[in-house]
């Protein structure tokens, strides 16, 4: 009888570490496919009556981090959260970090005309996926006139960003002024 208990203990001492290591491996999940992220965003947008702000970024991109930091600033974060379903999609990672990328995100960026743009590249769509605006400078007539503003920091870029936010949200002029001030602080 004692021998059977010893075998069981030995087996348990081997099985437990294997199970733990399998559980750890499973907890390191891959990023969700871009299509899944977008479908979830559309569902959430339909329920909350918001537009969707999609931001393409990468772990190494300092301008991406600066944009996130500005948007998450406690003085303006609630304006973005109340106005948009915000989703980040990871693209353009270095070879050793490709596993951070959302599968299909590069193709989605191409679909929304961001393939030749740097990052961050962002666009705003309605709950049905209709493009409302993107981070490429546009004229009043809607023609692309410039490059990607990405993380807007210069007065003309920030003005464009504010114009897009005004067009795609219900933000007040006072809220937009606070957002404008915060983004202009980035370059100081």
What's the gist of this structure?
With about 190 residues, this protein is α+β, with helices and mostly antiparallel strands. It contains 7 helices and 6 strands. It has 2 domains: about 1-30; about 35-185, Glutaredoxin (3-Layer(aba) Sandwich), CATH 3.40.30.
Major sheet description: 4 strands, mixed
CATH superfamily of the largest domain: Glutaredoxin
Secondary-structure content class: alpha+beta
| Strand segment count | 6
Count of discrete domains: 2
Tell me the β content: 15-25%
- Round the Cα radius of gyration to an integer and report it: 22 Å
Describe the fold and architecture.
The protein is α+β, with helices and mostly antiparallel strands and 188 residues long. The chain has two domains: 1-30; 34-185, Glutaredoxin, CATH 3.40.30. The chain is built from seven helices and six strands, in the order H-H-E-H-H-E-H-E-E-E-E-H-H. It has helices spanning 2-27, 34-48, 62-71, 77-83, 105-111, 155-168, 173-185; strands at 51-57, 84-90, 121-125, 131-134, 136-138, 144-148. It has a four-stranded mixed sheet with strand order 2-1-3-4. Strand 3 and strand 4 (131-134) form a beta hairpin. Helix 6 runs antiparallel to helix 7. The longest helix is centred in the first third of the chain and has 26 residues, at 2-27. It is globular, with a radius of gyration of 22 Å. It starts with a helix and ends with a helix.
């Amino acid at each position: 009888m004692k021998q059977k208990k010893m075998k069981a203990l030995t087996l348990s001492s081997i099985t437990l570490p294997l199970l733990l290591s399998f559980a750890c491996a499973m907890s390191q999940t891959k990023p969700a496919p871009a299509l899944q992220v977008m479908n979830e965003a559309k569902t959430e947008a339909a329920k909350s009556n918001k537009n969707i702000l999609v931001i393409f970024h990468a772990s190494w991109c300092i301008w991406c981090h600066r944009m996130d930091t500005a948007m998450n600033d406690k003085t303006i974060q609630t304006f973005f959260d109340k106005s948009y379903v915000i989703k980040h999609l990871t693209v353009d990672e270095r070879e050793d970090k490709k596993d951070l990328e959302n599968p299909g995100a590069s193709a989605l960026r191409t679909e929304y005309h961001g393939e030749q743009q740097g990052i961050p590249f962002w666009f705003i769509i309605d709950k049905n996926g209709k493009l409302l605006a993107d981070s490429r400078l546009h004229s009043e007539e809607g023609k692309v006139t410039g490059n990607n503003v990405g993380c807007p920091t210069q007065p003309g870029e920030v003005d464009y960003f504010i114009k897009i936010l005004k067009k795609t949200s219900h933000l007040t002029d006072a809220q937009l002024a606070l957002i404008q001030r915060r983004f202009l602080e980035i370059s100081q």
